[in-house]
Amino acid sequence: MTRIILARHGETNWNREGRYQGQLDTELSPLGWQQAERLAEALAKLPITAVYSSPLSRAYETAKKAAEKHQLPVEIVEGLTEIHHGCWQGLYAHEVKEQYGVELEIWQSAPHQITMPGGGECLKQVQDRAVAALEMIAKRHPGETVLVLSHDATIRAFFCYALGMDLANFWLFRQDNTCINVVEYLPDGRWRLSKLNDTCHLGSLIWDVDQKAL
Fold it and tell me: What residues sit in the active site (predicted)?
């Protein structure tokens, strides 16, 4: 069995502003850096043997803080990156609502039925690459504990697969910045979820971000 600590990156200014990031490379906010340090401290005594991250800097810098506690490098895995939000990337939530109201309604009510307009991804594409990435990591580290830093939509889509749920249930999972999830890859190839959206390490550093922008 491989235990994967699957965490979301620290807060960015765009998270706070309600702006769609997608695969644009935004930086951690001052609060996000504090959250990353709290996450690193929370994981410091665990027997982590490897650290992986999305290529986006908000995830990589969060992973790097934790990796330093264990004197480990951070390995980039492309499949862990955030959903490509197409032409929504860079727009504020109110701008998306004004310009893409019909598509936004589908995204919020039936997310499995839309491909992001303007060359973006659908959730099945996100799920397929996330599952492939996490299975690759799990098989590379049998019997070990590994830290993986990823993103809101990517983690939600993976959970739908791991728990045998349709992607229509995507919005049922909450993922706060630097939350800790723990999943176990079992010998028969199934996944077991043992911790979900744990933010106890954050204390007062948790902020209730509107979930409409990812």
Answer: 9 (tele-phosphohistidine intermediate), 82 (proton donor/acceptor)
180-184 long-range CB contacts below 8 Å, 24 or more apart? 180/5, 180/7, 180/39, 180/42, 180/43, 181/5, 181/6, 181/7, 181/155, 182/3, 182/4, 182/5, 182/6, 183/3, 183/4, 183/6, 183/134, 184/1, 184/2, 184/3, 184/4
CATH architecture label of 2-193+200-205: 3-Layer(aba) Sandwich (3.40)
What is Dmax (Cα atoms) for the chain? 50
Residue 197 marked ligand-binding: no
The one-letter amino acid at 22: G
Based on the number of CB atoms within 10 Å of its own CB, is 84 exposed (0-12), middle (13-18) or buried (19 or more)? buried
- Of the residues 61, 82, 103, 121, which is catalytic? 82
Question: Is 13 marked as binding a ligand?
Answer: yes
Tell me: the pLDDT tens digits for 148-185? 999 999 999 999 999 999 999 999 999 999 999 999 99
Q: Is 11 annotated as a binding residue?
A: yes
Q: Comparing C-alpha atoms, which of 48, 190, 167 is closest to residue 114?
A: 167
3 is in an annotated binding site: no
pLDDT at 195 over 80: yes
82 counts as catalytic: yes
* Residue 8 assigned to a binding site: yes
Confidence of residue 101 (pLDDT cuts 50, 70, 90): very high
Domain ranges of the chain: 2-193+200-205
Q: Is 141 a catalytic residue?
A: no
